[in-house]
Known about the structure:
This protein has 14 helices and 6 strands. The protein is mainly alpha-helical.
Amino acid sequence: MAPTAFSAPQAPSPRSGAPLARRVTTALAAALVLGAAAAPAYAAGAPSISGAPKKLPDGLYGTKDPQYDGVWRQSLALLAQHTVGVRPAAPAVRWLVGQQCADGAFTAFRAEPGKACDAKTMRDTNQTAAAVQALAALGGQGDAVRKAVGWLKSVQNDDGSWSSMPGSPGDANSTSVVIGALAAAGQKPESVTSKKGKSPYDGLLTFRLGCAGKEAAHGAFTFQLKGAAPNADATAAAATGVLGRGFVVAPAAHGAPLTPPACKDGTDAKPGKVSAARAADGGAAYLVAQLDENGQHLVSAMPGAKPQPDVGNTADAVVALAAGGHAAEARKPLAWLRKNAADWARQNGPAAYAQLVLAAHATGSDPRAFGGSDLVTALNATGPAPASVPGKHTGDADASAGDSGGSTVWWIVGVGLAFGAGIGFLLSGRRKKSTS
């Protein structure tokens, strides 16, 4: 990434367990809009990059190369299992803890965890915050959680935000997942302030577009301030994070009315100048407006290609709507996921299964009977056999992992070359898709 808007060249890290494929649209669009730095493009089925492990370590979920998403997919899998009462296998937890650097940070994957992290280790706030949420939920890992939270606090930007890679401008997705980690660790996010006294919520609200742009974009959040554009993925993350929620959202007892931004009277016109509740409501209203004409799912498209249903972002939107108490608005996209998400999850592995489990949990649905699929059993099969499941003790014997690993691993291809060698990635490492 260029100095003003990008960090050093880096591998992307996934967001919310969705496939890296969904980052293609933002990557290409950003390259065209910014015209300065290359963004990554990814291709399904491409060979693993050099240096990938020939044999995956014991305890790791999935079978695909973990270089970009190992800690992320492991964290999501463990967290989803815990949420539905499954006790993960001890080797799976040990693997995750063993990936931590001495300073508390995590990177996507360390093939040699016994070797100390050095200056070349690409520490990642997304992977670290995901690990915090999982380890805090599982319990018994207080030292690892404290060290990780301490590191996250140490790399907070002056405006209160976080980027995926420390030293870069913040983004809505990274800031949101860190807020979830702070809350999971028992911290009050509003009390975690930068050197300039800015809280994570201050930072997150800077990405709120509010009433800027076309009416259809009102309430949206942008991924990053430079080249700001409405972004459904960033909006789903922010609408959850601004309420102090993480990946696990408890189902709301009662439905709350959805209130779009009050733009005509100027109430919500200024980004960053509204309450968290109003910002979350505005984001939820934007997401609902972005659903297809039948109100069932979000869409995304490669440049020049026909728009396609976006399963992962739809699941994120369901969680965001549930976080705001908007059960009625979540009903249609949830029903669509029940009918259409099974194949997507099978292709994309543990993090995708985990994402659907958490969406089901947020809406009070049964993930073991999700449109005819048992998401919990399918998730369990992608890693070592759980220590126990509700009503059944399985022990720690390894089960054969599924064919998929974490997010579908999409490897770097040559789009960046068109913009010059040595330019890094635009994306913070979480799914980013521009929806104008």
